[in-house]
Amino acid sequence: MGLIVKEVRGFTHADAGSLYIRDENELRFEVAQNDTIDNRLGVRKDHFRPFALHLTSESIAGHVAITGEILNIKDVYQLKGKEDFFHFKDFDLRNNYRTQSMLVVPMLDHRSDIIGVLQLINALDENNQVISFSGEVEDLVLSLSSQAAVAIRNTQLLDSIKNIFKALVQYSVTAIDARSPHTAGHSERVAALSLLLASAINRQTKGPFAQFSFAEEELEELSYAAWLHDIGKIGVPEHILDKSARLTDDQIELVKTRFDLARARILFNFQKRLLEERLSNDEKSAAEYARDKELTQLEEGLSLVLRINNADSISDECLNALRGIAEIEFLNFTGERQPLFTDFELKNLGVARGNLTEEEYKKIQSHVSYTLNILNRIPFTPELNRVPLFAAAHHEMLNGTGYPQGLKAKDIPLQARIMSTADVYDALVASDRPYKRALPVKEALDILLEEAQNERLDKDVVNLFIEEKVWDDDSLKEELDF
Ligand SMILES: [Fe+2]
Ligand SMILES: [Fe+2]
User: How far is CA 288 from each of CA 266, 416, 468, rounded to the nearest angstrom?
Assistant: First the structure.
């Protein structure tokens, strides 16, 4: 906008010029240039700060902004008094300046809507004397200012498209994360941490990141990648995301019912034998002994199941005991023999670590492929075209043990390393993950270091995360309302 004013002032020989943008009921004073005052001060005055005025037709600029009329005034102090606008003298008084001639034109966009006003002040002749603006330049100024208006309007439209896209991304990701209490707010936190890490990298003047610097567009690209990194979780069933025990409460109830039935069957069989057979005392004692043994076995079996169901990990011994119980059969309601567990239950209860079966774990891992598929369909602009690449690499590990591609260090971009550090940290300290309890910061940082030592995470990124206290940043707390 400054350039527009400068160019138009150039060919109209105007000593000063201003540019206003019309915004609903406001007129925003965006540019003010004045050679006489600058020369007097001996410096270029760059301290002008844009401000907004209430839009009324009383001021000259306001009048043009509302009516779209071109005003070419010989001397603003000689207005006849019939006009419905005034020249406000405060500026002249404050700056010891004399505004005289003025050419004020509306800036019309492609739909002929007035988007702003260009105000040229004091046309100068070759002796630097103030003269009127020639009527011949009016059309040229109008057409130039309107070309500028179209450019400004395009920028405004671009900004609003960007804002719509950003809001759409943030709202949908927030909604997807909120599907499960275990992921709620995760992407937003990973994006905030990733940006803080990137700005920490930008601040480095020595060390491994001295040569690295993310440009503004690259920060935006990283932010989108981080916001969208887990969007593929939309393809993972909620019961897997939410899984907090090996079997759900309902599934456990079913197992309990089967144990109850087995118990009732043992007691029934014992009574039946007593009624139907004439047992000697010894035989009766033996039957009682057998009955109690079976009942104890069931009781111990059920309590083992209940214990295992919420365990972080189980020993081989436990697993063998579980298999032993699984072999017990009982007669169900229809008189058929049936095992105490289904294959599904045994598989879930028998998971060695965590609570996810191999298939469920694979389903969770598949979120990265979904992320890539979804993001590949979004026609990102050139500045954002690596978003899918970065987002899809957030579970890759430097030593090649990550997924989905098992990329090696040299193929994992810095942006993805930043995101994986932020991702692991948030997963550790978030209190709402189903399979891990929330860790204190110190322990989480120790795990990051361990991951770096094992060449899973990038050690330079992890060190910076710890040294620069990215996790403790005030702006992060503020932003996320900790
Ligand atoms: Fe992920
Ligand atoms: Fe994540």
Answer: 11, 66, 71
